[in-house]
Specification:
With 71 residues, the protein is α+β, with helices and mostly antiparallel strands. The protein contains one helix and four strands, in the order ββββα. Strand 3 and strand 4 form a beta hairpin.
């Protein structure tokens, strides 16, 4: 992923990753990933899993994904 890929729009409702720290429909600031990218990070665990799968698929990951987490 490069800055040219941004913003990454998810479902037309939000920018998952953006070069600008302001995202659609959110009042809380996103998490800074690097000098040029911000990640929207105010989601439930289930939503985070779906978003991770979305990004992996978008960038060509082919295979199964196993995610383990504890509550």
């Amino acid at each position: 992923m490069t800055s040219a890929d941004l913003p990454i729009d998810y479902s037309g409702k939000l920018y998952l990753i953006n070069a600008d720290p302001k995202h659609k429909h959110r009042d809380k600031p996103p998490h800074r990933l690097s000098n040029w990218a911000y990640l929207e990070n105010h989601y439930s665990t289930d939503c985070c899993i779906k978003l991770a799968e979305f990004l992996l698929e978008k960038y060509g990951f082919k295979g199964s994904l196993e995610i383990k987490y504890s509550t």
